[in-house]
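Hi everyone,

Forwarding the result from last night's run.
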Amino acid sequence: MSSMTDIVFLLLIFFLVTSTLVNPNALKLLLPKSTNQLPSQQSVTVSIDKNLVYYFNAKVTPFSMLESKIVSELKNSADPCINIQAEKSVPIEYVVRIMNIAKTHGYKSILATEPE
């Protein structure tokens, strides 16, 4: 019986040592937990397709009019947010233009992605 406990303790030590070596470069973050989601906040959606055409809430809009439409839509919002949807092939400078509009007016900007 004592030899069996020795083997169990050796296996336990082996698994403890190997489990700590599995992912040594991972960040250890303490993330908040939530049991429910918050209600949807006031936001607008700006999309950019592969032809570099801007869409404001699914309607084609030239970039020169985009800022005024965003501001007029979000002027009475308590927590305004811009959802940015851009195709993979869109150069980053076109996305940054929208983010600059958000920063200028103090809006949050979210870059939408597809789930893997």
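The two ends are 51 Å apart (CA to CA).

Cheers,
N.
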